[in-house]
Design a protein that fits this description.
Helix content: 55-70%
Family: Belongs to the tetraspanin (TM4SF) family.
Shape: rod-shaped
Main location: membrane
Largest sheet: 2 strands, antiparallel
Organism: Ceutorhynchus assimilis (cabbage seed weevil)
InterPro entries: Tetraspanin/Peripherin (IPR018499), Tetraspanin_animals (IPR000301), Tetraspanin_CS (IPR018503), Tetraspanin_EC2_sf (IPR008952)
Strand content: under 5%
Radius of gyration: 33 Å
GO cellular component, one term: plasma membrane
Number of domains: 2
């Protein structure tokens, strides 16, 4: 009886720990969705400069965040109902998500290797086609938000006299042609024009976003390992508890029949020892 109480107490502790872990997973799921959505929103401001695969890690992070919500609910139901099947399925899905999170982390980190060269190529292409509306929108948005001008320097716009650019007369009487978004104020002047190029600033933004996503996915994967451990412990405790209950039920039934047979003067049936799994076998 004491052993059964200890077993029930231990299983309750594991159930509570699993519920707390599921609450953490809900928060983590929200965090992943938030990070993924924020990064996608940042990238959308520079869409013409981005490679398509830059969006893959953030999109996958959003999908994983939603998936974690469903899994957390699944785990809570399995814990409350004390279902070995549900808890084991929960642990299996957690393992799949764990692999996905590690994949996101690796993909996001690996993406940082060629960021600068890819963005420089796309910037040059968009600058060559600045007269197209979407390229102009992306360049103007980039220069306004990052407070920069051109790819490497502001003088690069002078190679495109066919564009409708703002002309600034410098101190040495040379003319600098730039889009209006290259200036801090609506009226451009030598004192208000941005001198830094956009490539290094945008590369830094994209690189930091990728690093944030990689670190976030990796941290979540460590937390998820705890969920897998708790789920495995709970499934083991549930199996052992159910076996103990079956053994007790059979013993009570046998004692009841033995008492009836003794009251009738009949010889009780021989006692057969029922197998009870040990802790290491549960």
């Amino acid at each position: 009886m004491v052993i059964q109480k200890d077993l029930d107490f231990g299983m309750k502790c594991i159930k509570y720990m699993l519920c707390v872990a599921n609450l953490m997973f809900v928060i983590v799921g929200l965090l992943l969705i938030s990070i993924g959505y924020t990064i996608k929103s940042i990238y959308s401001n520079f869409e013409q400069f981005m490679e398509t695969y830059y969006y893959n890690p953030s999109s996958l992070a959003i999908i994983i965040g939603i998936f974690i919500f469903v899994i957390a609910l699944f785990g809570c139901v399995g814990a409350v109902r004390e279902s070995t099947c549900l808890v084991n399925t929960y642990a299996f899905f957690l393992t799949i998500v764990l692999v996905m999170e590690i994949s996101v982390s690796i993909a996001a980190y690996a993406m940082r290797s060629n960021i600068e060269s890819n963005i420089a190529y796309n910037m040059k292409f968009a600058m060559d086609h600045f007269n197209e509306e979407y390229n102009a929108f992306t360049w103007n948005s980039t220069q306004y938000n990052l407070q920069c001008c051109g790819i490497y320097r502001n003088t690069e716009w002078g190679a495109y006299p066919e564009y409708n650019l703002t002309k600034i007369v410098l101190a040495d009487n040379t003319t600098l042609s730039v889009p209006p978004t290259c200036c801090q104020q609506e009226k451009c002047s030598p004192a208000t024009v941005y001198t830094s190029g956009c490539l290094f600033r945008l590369s830094y933004v994209v690189s930091q976003c990728a690093l944030l996503l990689a670190a976030g996915a990796l941290c979540v994967s460590f937390i998820q390992v705890l969920g897998i451990v708790f789920a495995s412990m709970l499934a083991k405790s549930i199996r052992k508890a159910k076996t103990e209950r079956l053994v007790r039920r059979e013993e009570l039934r046998r004692n009841f029949y033995d008492q009836m047979m003794k009251s009738r003067g009949e010889k009780p049936e021989p006692v057969v020892e029922l197998y009870t799994p040990k802790d290491s076998e549960a």
